[in-house]
């Protein structure tokens, strides 16, 4: 069949990714067919294979894209104090993730649907991001400004706490995003015994 009117690679490719993101977040990866994605985009099902080899590759592309964007957007703060670096990390993490509810959701919920090879790539990227926070905590402990018994465990706990905001925060709620961020900064400082 002919390509849908107005379908072009630079337009259709991103629309396929966006449709897949919405459908995977709403229904789950396993429940979504390539036909459903094609229908949401307005192209024939066979046309999807011009943009992705299969649904697994599409999921991997979404998760890897999210992690690549996160890593490239994270501020480089090697010269600041551990306290300032920690606050910057917390604020960045919250702001970045609050703008990407669906990407965050599938990045955690759909890991189980990746092939072992794809899973390892995503896990490696996640470790790279986690290592940034752990480095801040280690530097703070070494400088005597944080009191942390296990930097790895504390890193995982902080990231889980910060990312969890995406499950409940909505614009127009009791607190603004800035108020939530300030409160979480205070909680994280207390969690690491910041002096």
UniProtKB/TrEMBL annotation:
Pfam families: TetR_C_24, TetR_N. It comes from the Bacteria. Residues 33-52 bind DNA. The keyword Plastid does not apply. Keywords: DNA-binding, Transcription, Transcription regulation. The keyword NAD does not apply. Residues 10-70 form the HTH tetR-type domain. This is TetR/AcrR family transcriptional regulator. It comes from Thalassococcus lentus.
């Amino acid at each position: 069949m002919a390509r849908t009117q107005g379908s072009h690679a630079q337009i259709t490719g991103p629309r396929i990714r966006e449709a897949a993101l919405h459908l995977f977040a709403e229904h789950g990866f396993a429940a979504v067919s390539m036909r459903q994605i094609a229908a949401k985009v307005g192209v024939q099902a066979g046309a999807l294979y011009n943009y992705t080899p299969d649904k697994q590759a599409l999921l991997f592309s979404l998760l890897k894209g999210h992690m690549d964007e996160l890593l490239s957007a994270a501020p480089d703060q090697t010269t600041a104090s551990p306290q300032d670096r920690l606050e910057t990390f917390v604020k960045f993490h919250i702001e970045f993730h609050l703008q990407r509810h669906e990407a965050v959701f599938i990045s955690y919920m759909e890991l189980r649907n990746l092939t072992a090879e794809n899973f390892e790539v995503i896990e490696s990227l996640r470790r790279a991001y986690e290592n940034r926070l752990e480095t801040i905590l280690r530097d703070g402990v070494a400088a005597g400004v944080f009191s942390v018994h296990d930097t790895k465990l504390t890193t995982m706990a902080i990231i889980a706490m910060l990312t969890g905001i995406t499950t409940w925060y909505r614009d127009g709620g009791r607190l603004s995003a800035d108020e939530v961020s300030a409160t979480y900064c205070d909680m994280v400082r207390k969690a690491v015994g910041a002096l």
